[in-house]
Design brief:
The structure is a homodimer of 206-residue chains. The first copy, chain A, is mainly α and 206 residues long. Chain A folds into two domains: 43 residues, Arc Repressor Mutant, subunit A (Orthogonal Bundle); 148 residues, Tetracycline Repressor, domain 2, CATH 1.10.357. Helices cover 66% and strands 0% of the residues of chain A. Chain A has eight helices and no strands. The two termini of chain A are 37 Å apart. Chains A and B meet through α7 and α8 of A and α8 and α9 of B. Chain B binds a DNA duplex (30 and 30 nucleotides) through α3.
Chain lengths: 206, 206
DNA sequence: AACTGAACTGAACTTAACTCAGGTTGATCT
DNA sequence: AGATCAACCTGAGTTAAGTTCAGTTCAGTT
C-alpha cells in the first residue's frame, strides 16, 4: 500500500493546468479522440513539454482517475462520518456522490469510461504505479460501501444479504449515471440524486 | 430508422471468423490494447485482408456493439412476451439479461466499455451507419425497460415514479455487472442474477 | 478457356504518440 | 548585481500501428 505523493508544484509548474485541460478534453471529446497535442495547445506549451510532467498521455489519464477515486473516497468518509443510523448514512453517501462540480462530473465520466485500463498492467514504472494506486482505491471505495452495508445488516437495519455483491451493485447503480448524465441535459442532477437515493434505500433496506 | 442488413456471407467469407476473433481479443485484452494485426493472425489472413470486410478496426468494434445490442433487445422481447404480470415480466427480463454464453459475456463487456463511442459522430460512412444503428438500438433497449415500468405503474403493480429515469437506472444496475464479472471469478453468474433480480424488484415495486 | 467478382497480399503511406539533444528561464544564494 | 542550477521548454527526428494502394489469386460461371 504505497500512496502516491503528488509532486509538489514548483512556482511555474503547469501540471495543474495540464490536468484541468486534459479533464476538459478527455471528458468532452473522449480520451482516444483527443490529440495529446491539443491539450498542450490549450495550456499554451509545446507538445513535448507535456512529457516534463507526464510520462505519457495514458499516465495523465491514470493520474486523473486516481485523483478522482481519492476524492470519491474522501467525500464518502466525510459524508458518512456522523450519520445517526445506517439508513441515514446510506442516504448521505448517495447524496455526497452526486454533490459534485461540473469539472468533477467530467472526471467521473472519464473514470467510468476507462475503468478497464486498471486491469492489465503497464509497461513503464510511473504508469504502473498510478494504475496500482488507482486499483487499490477502487477496492477502498468498494469496501466503503460494503462496510456500510455490513454495519447496517449486523445492526438489523438492513436485511441480511451478500454485502459484497450488493455493495458492488449499489456502487454500480450510482456510477452508471455518469455514462449518460450531461449538465446540459434535460434532467437536473438533483432529480437524479433523489431518485437514486430512494432506489438505493429500497434495494438495501427493504 | 434504417436497419443495417448483414452482408450476406459468400461461401469463403471470413467475416464471422473475424468477428469471433475480434470479440475474443477485444474482450480479453481490450480494444485499444489489441493490435488489429493480431486479429488477422488469429484468423489466418494478412492484416490488409481485414479491410475487405471492415472499413477499420473501429468499424469492426461498432459492428460487434450493434450486434450485441440487437441481441439484448431480442432477448428482452422474447423473455417478456408472455409474462403474466409486470413483476413477473421484470423478473424474466432480468434473468434473460444474465442468461448468456461466455462469448456473449465478452460482447457485453466490450459494449459497456465503449458506449462513449456512440456519442461523437464518425468520419466514414459505414462507420457512421453502424454508430447510428447502435445508438438507435440503445434507445430501443432503454424504451424496452421504460415501457415495462410504465405498464407496471399504470397497472398499479409499481408505485408511480419517473419511468424514464428509473428505467435507465435499472438498466444501468444490470449492465454494471459486466464491468467486473469474470467467468473465472469467485461469483457464479446465477448468484449475480438472483441478487440483481431481487434488487430490481425492490427498486421498482416497493 | 475466358470471364467475373470475392478474397487476398506486400509495399508504401499517414498520423499521432513519443524520444532526444540541447536551449531558456527564473528563483535563490553569495 | 551576477552566478548558478534545476526546472522548464523546444524543434527535429523516430516509431508503431492503423490504413491505402496497386495489383494478384482463386472459385465458380458461361
Amino acid at each position: 500500500m504505497t500512496r502516491i505523493v503528488e509532486p509538489e508544484a514548483g512556482p511555474r509548474s503547469k501540471r495543474a493546468a495540464i490536468l484541468t485541460a486534459a479533464v476538459d478534453c478527455f471528458g468532452e471529446t473522449g480520451f482516444e479522440a483527443t490529440k495529446w497535442s491539443t491539450v498542450a495547445e490549450r495550456v499554451g506549451i509545446g507538445q513535448t513539454a507535456l512529457y516534463h510532467y507526464f510520462e505519457s498521455k495514458t499516465h495523465c489519464l491514470l493520474t486523473i482517475m486516481r485523483v478522482e477515486l481519492q476524492r470519491s473516497h474522501d467525500r464518502f468518509v466525510e459524508a458518512t462520518k456522523d450519520a445517526a443510523d445506517p439508513v441515514e448514512a446510506l442516504r448521505a453517501a448517495v447524496r455526497a456522490a452526486y454533490d459534485v462540480s461540473p469539472q468533477e462530473v467530467l472526471q467521473m465520466r472519464i473514470l467510468q469510461n476507462h475503468m478497464d485500463l486498471l486491469s492489465g498492467s503497464r509497461r513503464s514504472k510511473r504508469e504502473e504505479d498510478e494504475r496500482v494506486a488507482a486499483r487499490q482505491l477502487v477496492q477502498v471505495v468498494e469496501r466503503d460501501w460494503t462496510n456500510l452495508l455490513v454495519k447496517g445488516m449486523s445492526q438489523g437495519s438492513f436485511p441480511l444479504r451478500d454485502a459484497q455483491l450488493l455493495g458492488a451493485s449499489v456502487l454500480g447503480l450510482i456510477v452508471s449515471v455518469w455514462r449518460w448524465y450531461r449538465p446540459s441535459g434535460p434532467t437536473p442532477l438533483s432529480e437524479v440524486s433523489e431518485l437514486i437515493e430512494g432506489a438505493c434505500v429500497r434495494m438495501v433496506a427493504s
